[in-house]
Design a protein that fits this description.
With about 625 residues, the protein is an alpha+beta fold. It contains 16 helices and 20 strands. Helices cover about 35% and strands about 15% of the residues.
C-alpha cells in the first residue's frame, strides 16, 4: 500500500472555488507550459544552428557576467515627474543629430531602494519604442516594439534588446502608457537607453535627450543620465567591461544571423503569446489553498518527486523495521483478502504514478470485494442505531468486534450492491424495518439476557452529539445564522500568538453574532479542546474517532445550566416567547412544545408556570434545555 502513494507528499495545493476561474486558471497554465516548451524548442534549434561557436560565446558570456563585479552607480538614470494614476502617458526620446543606420535598441532598468523596489525601479508595465526622422513623430515612423496590450514582467536591470535591421533614423522614442507604481503614485524611470549600429557602437552615448517631463536632480536623476553609458549591472573594471560589451555584441550578432525569417517570426509570436498568458495569469485573483496529498515540486530538503515527473520513490522491506537496513524492493499492491486475490497490480513497466492509485481504487470498488460494501452498510447502520452490526467500524480484523448479525450484514451489503450502490435506498430499507420502528422502552426480562441490546430487542436511545445540541439551542433562541461556506468561526480569544498561543474560550463573548453559525463551521484547535463541547462528549479533534462516546455526568448538567452561551441563548429564547405570548401558562406551554416537540401534561405545565413566576422565564428556558428529554432521542 505504501508503494501506491510513494510519489505523493503532503503539501499545499492552490485552487479556485469558482468553476469558471478554475477553468481559466487551468487553461492559462496549460498555455504557459505549451509556450515555454515551444520557446525552448526554438532556442534548442538556435543553439543547434549556432554550433560550437555559439556554445563557446554563451559560456564565455556567462563567465564574464559572473566575473564582472558591480557597485551601485550614483547616476541612476532618467526619472519622469510623479503622477497619481498609472494610465497617464509619458515619453522620452533621443536625438542622434542625423539619420544613422541602427541595428538594435537596448533598454536597461534603473535601480533604487526607495520603498524596497530595487532593480527595475520605474520600469513601465506597458510601453512601445518607435523610430522616426521627425522630432514630433508625425508622418512615417517605425514601430520597433509594441508591449501596450498586456502588462509586462519587470526585467530588473537585465538588458532588453530590440532588433531593427539596419534602417536609418534620427529620433528614438520610448512611450509608456502604463506607469510603474512607486508607493501611492506612479512614474517612468529608465537606467540607460542604447542605440547600437551593426558593430555594437552605442550611437546614443552623450546625445541630446528630450522628454514630456523629467525630474532633474543631479547626479542621481537627469535626462542626460539616460545616455551617459553608465548603468547598474555594468562591470566596474574597464577591461572586463569592454570584454563583456564586445562578447555581448558578438553573441547578439551571431544570434541575429541565425534568427531570421520564419524562425524569427515564430520566436517573436511565441514570446508575445507567453508574455500575454503570464500577464493574464498574474492578473488573476489569488487562489485559495488546501493541504492535500500531491506530486510536489519543491526545493531544498523538501524537493518532492515533481522534478522527476512524479516518479514514485523506491519502497523496500525494512529488516526488523530499521530504516538503515532496507531489503527487497516492493511494488504497489494490496492485502490478499480472498483466494482469487493476488495482492499485486497488473501494471506496465512505464506506468504513471496515477496508475497505481487508479488500480487501488478499482480493487477497492470490485463487486466481489469482501470488506468495502460490508464496511459501508455497517457504518450507515451505526448512524441509525448508535452501534454497528460490527461494533468496531474501523476494524473488521482479528482485533475488532464480531458481527452481531453476520447474515444481516451480508444481506445488506448484497442489497446495497444490487440497488446500484444507492445510499438513499439503503436508508429506506433500514428506516422502514420493524427493528428501526421499535420503541426504546425497557424490558426487564430481555435486559437480563442482553443488557447491551446487541440483538436489538428495543430501539437504542440516542444522545444528541455536542454539535447537534449546540445547534438546537441556537435554533430555539432564534439566533442561528444559516450562512454557508467561507472560513469558520472562532469561539475563543487568542492571546500571545507571537510565541505560545493561548486559546481563551472563557473570555469570548457569547453575544458575538459571528459564532452563531452551525457547529460544522467551528474552528477546531487540535492542541486545546473547547471545554463546553468536550463536556458534552465532543470528540478530540486531534484523533480519528469511529464512534462518539456517550456519557452522562454531573458536569454536563452544570455546563448546560451555567455556560455563558447557554445563559445568553436562554435569555434570547425567553425574549422571543414573551413577544408572542401574553400569559405565563401559554408561554411556558409554547416553550415546552418547541423544546421537546410535544405538549406538556397538566402537572408539567403547572410546575413550569410556578417556576417561571418565581425565577423568571429565562431560567425556565435554561431548565428546559437541561432536561434529559431534550438531550436524548427516544
Amino acid at each position: 500500500i505504501q508503494a501506491v502513494f510513494a510519489a505523493l507528499d503532503r503539501a499545499d495545493r492552490e485552487y479556485y472555488p469558482n468553476p469558471e476561474m478554475a477553468k481559466k486558471h487551468a487553461t492559462l497554465k496549460k498555455q504557459i507550459t505549451t509556450h515555454k516548451a515551444a520557446l525552448e524548442k526554438i532556442n534548442s534549434e538556435i543553439q543547434s544552428k549556432g554550433g560550437t561557436k555559439l556554445a563557446e560565446l554563451t559560456k564565455q558570456l556567462n563567465e564574464l557576467r559572473k566575473k564582472a563585479t558591480t557597485k551601485p552607480r550614483p547616476e541612476f538614470g532618467y526619472h519622469s515627474q510623479i503622477v497619481d494614476k498609472p494610465d497617464i502617458t509619458k515619453w522620452v526620446q533621443i536625438d542622434l543629430e542625423e539619420p544613422m543606420e541602427i541595428d538594435r535598441i537596448t533598454l536597461i532598468g534603473a535601480s533604487d531602494s526607495y520603498n524596497n523596489i530595487g532593480d527595475g525601479f520605474g520600469f513601465p508595465l506597458r510601453y512601445k519604442i518607435e523610430a522616426s526622422n521627425n522630432s514630433k513623430f508625425a508622418g512615417d515612423s517605425l514601430l520597433i516594439t509594441d508591449h501596450t496590450d498586456v502588462d509586462q514582467d519587470n526585467p530588473g536591470i537585465a538588458p532588453q534588446h530590440f532588433k531593427i535591421d539596419g534602417a536609418k533614423y534620427r529620433y528614438i522614442r520610448l512611450t509608456a502608457i502604463k506607469l510603474a507604481k512607486r508607493s501611492n503614485d506612479y512614474i517612468l524611470a529608465i537606467g540607460e537607453m542604447q542605440v547600437c549600429d551593426a558593430s555594437g557602437t552605442n550611437l546614443a552615448k552623450g546625445k541630446s535627450v528630450t522628454a514630456l517631463d523629467s525630474i532633474e536632480a543631479p547626479v542621481r536623476w537627469r535626462r542626460s543620465n539616460l545616455v551617459d553609458g553608465l548603468y547598474n549591472g555594468q562591470a566596474n573594471d574597464p577591461e572586463t567591461a569592454k570584454l563583456l560589451t564586445d562578447t555581448e555584441t558578438a553573441h547578439t550578432k551571431l544570434i541575429d544571423s541565425i534568427v531570421k525569417g520564419d524562425i524569427a517570426e515564430k520566436r517573436r509570436q511565441t514570446r508575445a503569446a507567453l508574455t500575454k498568458a503570464e500577464a493574464l495569469m498574474k492578473a488573476m485573483p489569488k487562489p485559495q489553498r488546501v493541504y492535500v496529498g500531491k506530486v510536489h515540486t519543491g526545493g531544498g530538503a523538501f524537493r518532492g518527486t515533481g522534478h522527476d515527473g512524479g516518479k514514485p520513490r523506491a519502497i523496500h522491506v525494512l529488516h526488523r523495521g530499521d530504516m538503515s537496513q532496507p531489503r527487497n524492493e516492493v511494488g504497489p499492491g494490496t492485502l490478499r483478502l480472498s483466494k482469487g486475490d493476488t495482492g499485486t497490480f497488473n501494471l506496465t513497466e512505464e506506468h504513471k504514478e496515477s496508475d497505481r492509485r487508479v488500480a487501488l481504487a478499482r480493487w477497492l470498488t470490485k463487486t466481489e470485494h469482501p470488506l468495502t460494501w460490508r464496511s459501508i452498510v455497517n457504518r450507515i447502520w451505526q448512524y441509525h442505531f448508535g452501534t454497528g452490526i460490527v461494533s468496531t467500524p474501523n476494524d473488521f480484523g482479528q482485533m475488532g468486534g464480531k458481527p452481531s448479525h453476520p447474515e444481516l450484514l451480508d444481506w445488506l451489503a448484497a442489497e446495497f450492491l444490487d440497488n446500484g450502490q444507492s445510499i438513499k435506498q439503503l436508508h429506506r430499507i433500514i428506516l422502514t424495518s420493524a427493528t428501526y420502528r421499535q420503541s426504546s422502552k425497557a424490558n426487564a426480562a430481555h435486559e437480563k439476557i442482553d443488557s447491551q441490546n446487541r440483538y436489538l430487542w428495543r430501539m437504542n436511545r440516542r444522545q444528541l452529539e455536542a454539535e447537534a445540541l449546540r445547534d438546537s439551542i441556537l435554533l430555539l433562541s432564534g439566533k442561528m445564522n444559516f450562512k454557508m461556506y467561507g472560513p469558520g468561526f472562532r469561539d475563543f480569544v487568542l492571546e500571545h500568538p507571537e510565541h505560545s498561543p493561548h486559546y481563551e474560550y472563557h473570555k469570548h463573548n457569547p453575544e458575538d453574532v459571528s459564532i452563531h453559525r452551525r457547529s460544522v463551521y467551528r474552528f477546531l484547535v487540535r492542541s486545546q479542546q473547547q471545554p463546553f463541547m468536550t463536556t458534552l462528549n465532543c470528540a478530540d479533534p486531534s484523533q480519528q474517532v469511529a464512534r462518539r462516546d456517550e456519557a452522562i455526568t454531573a458536569l454536563q448538567s452544570l455546563a448546560m445550566l451555567n455556560n455563558k452561551l447557554m445563559v445568553a441563548m436562554a435569555q434570547h429564547f425567553a425574549n422571543e416567547l414573551e413577544q408572542r405570548q401574553t400569559d405565563t401558562q401559554s408561554t411556558v406551554s409554547e416553550a415546552f412544545f418547541r423544546t421537546l416537540g410535544r405538549a406538556p401534561s397538566e402537572k408539567e405545565a403547572s410546575d413550569l408556570a410556578t417556576y417561571a413566576q418565581q425565577h423568571g422565564l429565562a431560567n425556565t428556558c435554561r431548565l428546559l434545555f437541561n432536561l434529559n428529554e431534550f438531550s436524548f432521542v427516544d
